[in-house]
């Protein structure tokens, strides 16, 4: 038996181990293959989602509504004079004389409310609105009812007295002469204001040159007294039922109505600082 202790070798140092790699969680995950990468979403406008495709479609442009017009004549020169020469130097100018045609519903804003109330009030009186209102025009932000002259008096009384309308004030009547508007050459235009509702509308009534009669509204709007006299004086519109329809500007024995388009310019020579200026119908013509 061997009594010697087993030979011991000096302890060798352990070989230096490389530093342990950080945990896998700390390492950035390797990028998946390109095929596995999701395609980045495109902007909604370029590639809308299926459920939103209908709402994202561009809104089609709406057609522009054309405003109908009625051409009733053509004006030549600066002032449209025919019986005397054009002394303005603009004799080559020509322009159509166009009136706005009827408008279509909806008129917009409170215009529809007034139109509905007026038509309803006329129906309650047994009148056909289509016979009373020849056309309704919305032009330049104004609402105009073209009224048949035989129904003018009842229409203005309705506009004044109906609680939903209440056009208590008539601002006057103006005359217009369109010689080319055959059968309705003379126009009378009324502006009515509702103080209750803060609204303003226009009424327009026509009459032919051969029969220039329109009912007077002085019994409904007494302040129209002098306005009707002035329109009669300058345009020759005869307001039937007026309490005293006489001239208000021109002398009583004056012939004709000076603001009609067919009225001759006439005139008298004028002396100005020694220069003698002939009457308009005798001046040099440039046309």
Notes on the structure:
The chain is 14% helix and 23% strand. By secondary structure, the protein is an alpha+beta fold. The strands form 4 sheets. It has a 5-stranded mixed beta sheet. A two-stranded antiparallel ribbon has the order 1-2. The longest helix has 14 residues, at 111-124. The model is unreliable at 48-63 (pLDDT under 50).
Short description:
With 287 residues, this protein is α+β, with helices and mostly antiparallel strands. The protein has helices at 111-124, 129-132, 152-161, 225-235; strands at residues 69-76, 94-100, 133-139, 142-147, 169-177, 186-194, 199-207, 213-215, 238-240, 270-272, 275-277.
Annotate the secondary structure layout:
Elements (H helix, E strand, L loop, with lengths): L68 E8 L17 E7 L10 H14 L4 H4 E7 L2 E6 L4 H10 L7 E9 L8 E9 L4 E9 L5 E3 L9 H11 L2 E3 L29 E3 L2 E3 L10
Parallel strand pairs: 4-7, 8-9
Antiparallel strand pairs: 1-2, 3-4, 5-6, 6-7, 10-11
Order of helices and strands: EEHHEEHEEEEHEEE
Distance between the termini: 157 Å
Total number of beta strands:
11
Q: What is the number of helices?
A: 4
Overall pLDDT score: 80
Instruction: Round the Cα radius of gyration to an integer and report it.
Output: 43 Å
> Low-confidence parts lasting 5 or more residues at pLDDT below 50?
48-63
Structural class: alpha+beta
Strand content: 15-25%
Oligomer: single chain
Helicity, in percent?
A: 10-25%
